[in-house]
Automatic annotation (TrEMBL):
Keyword Transport assigned: yes
Name of protein: Heme ABC exporter ATP-binding protein CcmA
Residues covered by the ABC transporter domain: 10-213
Gene3D superfamilies: P-loop containing nucleotide triphosphate hydrolases
Molecular function via GO: ATP binding
PANTHER family per the UniProt record, alphabetical: ABC TRANSPORTER I FAMILY MEMBER 1
Species whose genome carries this gene: Aquilutibacter rugosus
Length: 213
C-alpha cells in the first residue's frame, strides 16, 4: 500500500477570469507543492497580475476552485497561509521603515525568530531604518516589501514581478530569499514578463498568453 501523499500547498482547478465578458485567462489549472517554486511567465497584459491576485483571494474568479493544503480557500486560510507581494507594497508612506515592519508584524503576525532589525539588515536597508517610506527609491521600497515577506509566517509566497526595480544584487537577494524559503519547506509562485531571472530552486513554469476575446 502506498502512503497517501500530502496535498499541494496550493492547487487551482479550472480557473477562469473575465472582465466585462472579456476572458483574461483560463480555464487553467496549476499546483505548487512544498519545496518548489512556480514561475508564471507571459507578456505584458497576459493576465499574470490578475491570476496572482485571484490566487491571493484579492479578486474572484468566475469559475474554478483554489485549495490550500487540500482545503477550499477562505479569506482566513488565505490570510494565514499566503504572503502576497504586489505592485503596491502595502506599506504606509508616512511611517519609517522600522515602523512599517513593526506595524505590519503586529497586524499580520510574524516569525518570532526574525526581528525587524534582522529583516532590515537582510534586505540591505539598515541605513534607512528611520527613513519614511515615501523617501525610499522604487528598489528600496521593493526591498522593504521583501523584508515584510521574510518575517511572515505564511508557507506560501505569492510575488508579483519581484525582480522589477531591483539592481543585480537585489535580484540575487530575491532568489536567495525564495531559495531559503523553499528549502525550509515553503513554496513560492512568482510572475515575470521575461525569463531574465528565476530562483535557483526546483521551478515549474506556466506560460500565460493573452486571451483573445
Ligand atoms: N482594473 C482593471 N480593469 C480593467 N481591465 C484591467 C484591469 N486590470 C487589468 N486589466 C486588463 O486585464 C488584462 C491582464 O492584465 P494583468 O495586469 O493581469 O496583466 P499582466 O500579465 O500582469 O501584465 P504586465 O506584465 O504588464 O504587468 C490586461 O489586458 C489589462 O488591460
Amino acid at each position: 500500500m502506498t502512503a497517501p501523499s500530502n496535498p499541494p500547498l496550493l492547487r487551482a482547478t479550472d480557473l477562469r477570469f473575465a472582465r466585462n465578458d472579456q476572458i483574461v485567462f483560463g480555464p487553467l489549472s496549476l499546483a505548487v507543492e512544498s519545496g518548489e517554486a512556480l514561475l508564471i511567465e507571459g507578456e505584458n497584459g497576459a493576465g499574470k497580475t490578475t491570476l496572482i491576485r485571484v490566487l491571493a483571494g484579492l479578486l474572484k474568479a468566475q469559475n474554478g476552485q483554489v485549495t490550500l493544503n487540500g482545503l477550499v480557500a477562505t479569506p482566513m486560510l488565505q490570510a494565514t497561509g499566503i504572503s502576497y507581494l504586489g505592485h503596491l507594497p502595502g506599506l504606509k508612506a508616512d511611517l519609517q521603515c522600522i515602523e512599517n515592519l513593526e506595524h505590519l508584524g503586529a497586524l499580520q503576525g510574524h516569525r518570532s525568530d526574525r526581528t525587524v532589525m534582522q529583516a532590515l539588515k537582510r534586505v540591505g536597508l539598515l541605513a534607512y531604518t528611520f527613513t519614511p517610506f515615501r523617501q525610499l527609491s522604487a528598489g528600496q521600497r521593493k526591498r522593504l516589501a521583501l523584508a515584510r515577506m521574510w518575517r511572515s509566517q505564511a508557507p506560501l509566497w505569492l510575488l508579483d514581478e519581484p525582480y522589477a526595480n531591483l539592481d543585480l544584487p537585489g535580484i540575487e537577494l530575491v532568489n536567495q530569499l525564495i531559495a531559503e524559503h523553499v528549502a525550509a519547506g515553503g513554496a513560492a509562485i512568482l510572475t515575470s514578463h521575461g525569463a531574465y531571472a528565476a530562483p535557483p530552486v526546483r521551478t515549474r513554469t506556466l506560460h500565460l498568453q493573452a486571451a483573445t476575446a
